[in-house]
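Troubleshooting entry. The earlier prediction with heme C gave an output that would not parse, so I re-checked the input for stray whitespace and re-submitted. Clean input:
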Amino acid sequence: MRARTAGLWVMVGMAGAAVVQAADRDGSPRGAADRAAAERGRVALTLTGFLKPEWSAAAYRRAGRLWDQPAPDPDRDPAGYAAAFRHHYGLHPAPYPNDGLPMGLRRGLGPGGTKTGLQLDCMLCHGGSIGGTSYVGLGNTQLDLKAVLHELTIADGRRAPPSTFVLSSSRGTNNAGMVAAALLSLRNSDLSPRLFPLPLGVNLPEMDTPPWWHLKRKATMYYDGRTDARSVRTNMQFLLGEKSLEQLKALEPVFRDVQAFLKSLEPPRYPFPIDTAQAARGQAVFERTCARCHGTYGPGGTYPNKIIPLDVIGTDPARSLGLSDRLVAHYNSTWLGAIHPVNTERIGYQAPPLDGIWATAPYLHNGSVPTLHALLKSSSRPQRFTRPPSTDFAHYDTIHVGWKFREVSAEELAATAQRSPFQARFLVDTARFGLSNRGHTFGDRLSEEQRMDLIEYLKTL
Ligand code: HEC
Ligand code: HEC
């Protein structure tokens, strides 16, 4: 990737008014100081501060001309256009003032502090909705990252830069890892910019975005658990497209507040009836079969923070293996890794907390399994399946818990890809790099009755 096009990958629009205040050392959401920090973080993340615009404001209105369905007129029917825009790209209404833009898009910072053009922010991937309610921190399982980046660029009269890796082959999964690696490869150890990328040998796959409400329980973060969850600087990687080391240093206190906000988030509660007797039976199954890795829930709940070796977990290894030693060494040589270096040992995947698990289908780090039932009975997992058209409850399966899906044949997948690459991204193909649905067979030996009890219990988390 050439330095000139790196600006497109400036992912995150938040800078602005740095309220510099010391946060509590451990960053956990306790006490008034933490609540104040979390509130400052909420404001910084959702309301204030922008990077420079990446696209013109007109790109938003012109994008509709590129769709295969006719779009409502953005001037005569702005609300209809906004809804169609969200639907097309898999975005969600912002539950905070955002100039009429969906979560994940925002105005950029123009000359003299004016709000102008368009920029992306964290909520592109970390802002989702379910049953018509938007949540900051729910992974966006609808996002078509490729379409957003490419079509806004084309709508601006520019050519989309050629991708050297798969941004997203289906809705929901995204290659945030390669974007971050590409940005870091254009910096030296002192974070001064480079014209030519360092060859870091990274080959990360696309992934599902994890919910932010897990962060408060974690000692280590990311799917492979190799980064200390107290690291503030790791959350600043997407700023590398624009910010100098001095600017990053000035923003660190803001990101400490953002982290306090992320740690204050709670999962949404399951909104449908739960059979409490069945859930109580399921809890016993859970504590026998699952708790040693996933912890216990409710008052006094514990989280063991275990990282499970690849040969034990058996899920797709690409994410764990793809983080190259050279990338880790380079990251650790910079300001980003100076306090909390990435662990140089590669183990496997961290068993995540399961709070709010009902709301975060599809499952596993790569979103390769559409429901909890399929996760707990590996022989029933579909090889190719449809992603839902929206996150309305009409598409939600309260029995198997997750999104309703249709299994798709190899022929249908190939024909759809031929006809419309955009439509093909509504289909998940677990044969793709990084998207295998194998492994995690810990539910296979349960009886169907125990499995259904367990699923009823998982709804309560
Ligand atoms: C392009 C999509 C995308 C954007 C934009 C994005 N993230 Fe993420 N985020 C991800 C994905 C995917 C992961 C999982 C990465 C992994 O573990 O390899 C992740 C992981 C995380 C985690 C770790 C969560 C955990 O439980 O381990 C945090 C914290 C986080 N992101 C914060 C942010 C912040 C803050 C921003 C904005 C500055 C941001 N992200 C922007 C996609 C994104
Ligand atoms: C040996 C440790 C271990 C045991 C036992 C275990 N899991 Fe897991 N589980 C993991 C790991 C590691 C992952 C992440 C794997 C990945 O994403 O590739 C995971 C992932 C999951 C996920 C997907 C999480 C998400 O956000 O997509 C669910 C749900 C889950 N486990 C439920 C269970 C249940 C229910 C049981 C008991 C039947 C169980 N697990 C037993 C280690 C374990």
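This one parsed fine. Residues 289-290, 292-294, 308, 312-313, 315, 349, 351-352, 354, 357, 360, 363-365, 372, 375-376, 440, 442-443, 454 surround heme C (ligand 2) (CB under 6 Å).
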